[in-house]
Amino acid sequence: MTTLTDTPTTRVPAPAPALDTETLRRLPKAVLHDHLDGALRPSTLLELAGAVGHRLPAGDPAALADWFRAAAGSGDLVRYIATFEHTLAVLQTREGLLRAAEEYVLDLAADGVVHAEVRYAPELMVKGGLGLAEVVETVQEGLAAGAAKAAAGGTPVRVGTLLCGMRMFDRCREVAELAVAYRDAGVVGFDIAGAEDGFPPADHLDAFAYLRRENMPFTIHAGEAHGLPSIHQALQVCGAQRIGHGVRIMDDIVDGRPGRLAAWIRDRRVALEMCPTSNLQTGAAGSIAGHPITALRDLGFRVTLNTDNRLVSGTTMTREMELLVREADWTAADLRTVTVNALESAFLPYAERRALIEDVVLPGYAAVL
């Protein structure tokens, strides 16, 4: 007689949970490439613009958000950057900087971000009479206020600051010195930003040599609007530890085989700060499905996922993840990988990186998935 216990059974694995928007939002995230002046809330921008008398191209939050996305989606990096005249107009006062920085952290917390590195160019925020040091101190004060509120709400966020020098101007060394001066006050690194084509990173060797002498980490925007020479200079001439965007590294990969520069980047685990939605807007990539982040992930590069500019690109980390899941067939394991990649390359002490990975990210994924 055969009983129920005698009947052979096949164990069917539980189906993977659906990666819907709310599930993705709850996943712990790390973002390395995010600009403060591209991340204001539309409603805040409207209020601050009214206070300083700056005229905006739209008069309500939804229409303003739509305008930014449309204006930034021209396929041209220079036109993309031009939209920042409106956000920078309201970041020239202490009040504007404090509010933007505080709300930035709260928006990260709502997005499930546990570590962020936010960047901005202090030299673009002094038209209202603030000095460079005052700008840095004010932003740090706002970030600290936001972090305190996020922690009190049960969603702590660790935020470090990168100071940007503008590659088409001549204050990069000055800003590099500012970054070192505030390294114990929340500034964790340096970057150069602005129009890439025609303004090679090697123009600012003095700043990068100074940062290396001072043991200050830095990343460089490269391989977005210009190709392999820009990436090569950033790494081999200037000494960057990470690359902002880097999508043009695909020019050095033929039939799935990396060339010498691409292999060097992969083998030495140089993080690529990739920003899919932004890259579509500037013409650096043609689609989410065909974005280099997936091919580079499959080839073993240390890719990271980022927002670049939350307002200008109309995005969040949750949305970037959702796009990759829906249009490029990414899995939860893929998202966990890029999150761990980001923390492995964060400008944080080793012990803090490991603690975020082992105590926050991995348990967070296990709890949700």
TrEMBL record:
<dbReference type="GO" id="GO:0006154">
    <property type="term" value="P:adenosine catabolic process"/>
</dbReference>
<comment type="similarity">
    <text>Belongs to the metallo-dependent hydrolases superfamily. Adenosine and AMP deaminases family. Adenosine deaminase subfamily.</text>
</comment>
<comment type="function">
    <text>Catalyzes the hydrolytic deamination of adenosine and 2-deoxyadenosine.</text>
</comment>
<keyword id="KW-0862">Zinc</keyword>
<dbReference type="GO" id="GO:0004000">
    <property type="term" value="F:adenosine deaminase activity"/>
</dbReference>
<keyword id="KW-0546">Nucleotide metabolism</keyword>
<dbReference type="InterPro" id="IPR032466">
    <property type="entry name" value="Metal_Hydrolase"/>
</dbReference>
<dbReference type="GO" id="GO:0009168">
    <property type="term" value="P:purine ribonucleoside monophosphate biosynthetic process"/>
</dbReference>
<protein>
    <recommendedName>
        <fullName>Adenosine deaminase</fullName>
        <ecNumber>3.5.4.4</ecNumber>
    </recommendedName>
</protein>
<keyword id="KW-0479">Metal-binding</keyword>
<feature type="binding site">
    <location>
        <position position="37"/>
    </location>
    <ligand>
        <name>substrate</name>
    </ligand>
</feature>
<feature type="site" description="Important for catalytic activity">
    <location>
        <position position="245"/>
    </location>
</feature>
<feature type="binding site">
    <location>
        <position position="35"/>
    </location>
    <ligand>
        <name>substrate</name>
    </ligand>
</feature>
<feature type="binding site">
    <location>
        <position position="308"/>
    </location>
    <ligand>
        <name>Zn(2+)</name>
    </ligand>
</feature>
<dbReference type="GO" id="GO:0008270">
    <property type="term" value="F:zinc ion binding"/>
</dbReference>
<feature type="binding site">
    <location>
        <position position="221"/>
    </location>
    <ligand>
        <name>Zn(2+)</name>
    </ligand>
</feature>
<keyword id="KW-0378">Hydrolase</keyword>
<feature type="binding site">
    <location>
        <position position="35"/>
    </location>
    <ligand>
        <name>Zn(2+)</name>
    </ligand>
</feature>
<dbReference type="InterPro" id="IPR028893">
    <property type="entry name" value="A_deaminase"/>
</dbReference>
<feature type="binding site">
    <location>
        <position position="194"/>
    </location>
    <ligand>
        <name>substrate</name>
    </ligand>
</feature>
<feature type="domain" description="Adenosine deaminase">
    <location>
        <begin position="28"/>
        <end position="360"/>
    </location>
</feature>
<dbReference type="Pfam" id="PF00962">
    <property type="entry name" value="A_deaminase"/>
</dbReference>
<dbReference type="GO" id="GO:0043103">
    <property type="term" value="P:hypoxanthine salvage"/>
</dbReference>
<dbReference type="GO" id="GO:0009117">
    <property type="term" value="P:nucleotide metabolic process"/>
</dbReference>
<feature type="binding site">
    <location>
        <position position="33"/>
    </location>
    <ligand>
        <name>Zn(2+)</name>
    </ligand>
</feature>
<dbReference type="InterPro" id="IPR001365">
    <property type="entry name" value="A_deaminase_dom"/>
</dbReference>
<dbReference type="InterPro" id="IPR006330">
    <property type="entry name" value="Ado/ade_deaminase"/>
</dbReference>
<dbReference type="GO" id="GO:0005829">
    <property type="term" value="C:cytosol"/>
</dbReference>
<feature type="active site" description="Proton donor">
    <location>
        <position position="224"/>
    </location>
</feature>
<dbReference type="GO" id="GO:0046103">
    <property type="term" value="P:inosine biosynthetic process"/>
</dbReference>
